[in-house]
């Protein structure tokens, strides 16, 4: 049981960190290549794995929710972002609204990381 609580904490920190890095990592030149990789992996999970499991599927969320369910938590939404925004704002934010926000954030971050990594495409 204690290892499940530890796993929940580790997955929470990792997930929040990755989400924040996906949104802002493009802004740091030293991290732009790593950011490109994490955005592409996230996009791949959402779209490619999403083809099999439903659009927006995140394997990290799936693992995390398995841990939370083992800890006895019930009624967990499909979205990690919704789960923590609901906690942060003490509200039940509509899932569709959170999905739109997440997609806008991902598209913006993807566009920014492509711009920041354009030297990979346009070598002089």
Automatic annotation (TrEMBL):
Keywords: Membrane, Transmembrane, Transmembrane helix. The keyword Transmembrane helix applies. The keyword Transmembrane applies. It comes from the Bacteria. The chain crosses the membrane at residues 6-28, 35-55, 97-115. InterPro entries: DUF2784. It holds the Pfam family DUF2784. It comes from Fulvivirga imtechensis AK7. This is DUF2784 domain-containing protein.
């Amino acid at each position: 049981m204690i290892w499940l609580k530890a796993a929940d904490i580790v997955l929470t920190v990792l997930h929040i960190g990755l989400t924040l890095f996906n949104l802002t990592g493009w802004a740091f030149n030293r991290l732009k290549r790593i950011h490109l990789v994490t955005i592409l992996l996230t996009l791949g999970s959402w779209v490619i794995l999403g083809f099999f499991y439903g659009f927006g599927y995140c394997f990290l969320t799936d693992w995390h929710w398995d841990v939370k369910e083992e800890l006895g938590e019930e009624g967990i939404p499909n979205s990690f972002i919704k789960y923590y925004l609901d906690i942060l704002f003490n509200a039940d934010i509509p899932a569709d609204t959170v999905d739109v926000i997440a997609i806008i954030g991902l598209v913006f971050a993807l566009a920014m990381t492509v711009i920041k990594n354009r030297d990979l495409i346009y070598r002089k």
